[in-house]
Amino acid sequence: MTEIVVVVLNYKTPDLAVQAAQSAARGMSGYSGAILLVDNDSPDNSFQRMQDAVLAADWPAHLNVQVLQSGHNGGFGAGNNFGIRAGLAICPQADYVYVLNPDACVDDTTISALVDYLEARPKVAFAGSWIYGDDGEDHCSAFRLPGLASEFESATRFGPVTRLLKSYVLPLHIPETSGPVGWVVGASFLARTSVLEEIGLFDETFFLYFEETDICLRAHRAGYEVHFVRESRTCHIGSVSTGLGTWERTPTYWFDSRWYYYSKNYGRSYAVAATVLSAIGTAFWRLRRRLEGKPNTDAHRHLRDMIAHAAKAVFRPTPKTAIRKMTALPKTALQPSLD
């Protein structure tokens, strides 16, 4: 039987995390494995609430369900890595790792559609689902890998530029068919364990954002493919714990992740060029917006903050990568809530 480790990483959304885990359990009827709810050192009583909820709920007997405490909020990548490595201690022969956001719920066939897809395509390392909101609206689920052209296109928000650079437009929205893409979102993300063993887990230098993009790029560079799977659907409330889309001001960690992604993978000069092109495009958009009387949709001081961040980052060393290998955590570090 195919064995899967499911990781649901929580930060201050314990009730949603348990609901996500329960939906995954319903989709695991044909698979063995473990479901790990990892609290990423939430400053509330999330860990206790998840413990109580898991103990009170009915779970399939063939699944090992655990609530774990990471003990340190190192971000999305670090928290999921903790869960993945803990899962290896429980299921050392796991075929796949499935990462599910705490504010997401899967259909009964979501996981099986991803597994069946990868089983039939050995060169596909990672697969992502069709994401939709609780209002039924589709969410952008697949993307091209970002670069200089996409930075300029997305910043200008100008039809003629978009048509000229159509092959570099970052969001692919909902592709009409399943197939290869640059990267997929981590809300519903199935990874082949053998590939993680080869390229490593998430780079923990990223606190939040760009970590999925980075691991997908590493898979591409290792000769694998990343695919969007239209047959797999996941409902995602969307960024409940991070506040994406409601920022009054873009947080520093977003700029940190963006700069690190470019400088790590393409060099410092490339990161500078990406920032310059984004700044030029944003300045053009602001001029056109004022002339046409359009509202400002950017976070407050976004352009100035991006330029100020880059001006400081260019004189700092590029942070060292923190890519963990596929090794199990010692059992003493797991702190399980259930025997």
List the helices and strands and how they pair.
Layout: E1 3-10, H1 14-26, E2 32-39, H2 46-56, E3 63-69, H3 76-90, E4 96-100, E5 104-106, H4 110-119, E6 124-132, E7 142-143, H5 148-156, H6 159-164, E8 171-173, E9 179-181, E10 183-184, E11 188-192, H7 193-199, H8 211-221, E12 225-236, H9 252-266, H10 268-292, H11 302-313
Parallel strand pairs: 1-2, 1-4, 2-3, 6-12
Antiparallel strand pairs: 4-11, 5-12, 6-11, 7-8, 7-10, 9-12
Helix pairs in contact: 1-2, 5-10, 9-10, 9-11, 10-11
Major sheet size, sense and barrel closure? 9 strands, mixed
Low-confidence stretches: none
Count of discrete structural domains: 2
Q: Which term fits the overall shape?
A: globular
What is the ordering of alpha helices and beta strands? EHEHEHEEHEEHHEEEEHHEHHH
Mean of residue pLDDT? Answer: 93
Domain Glycosyltransferase 2-like: 14-142
GO molecular function: transferase activity
Protein name: Glycosyltransferase, GT2 family
Keywords: Transferase
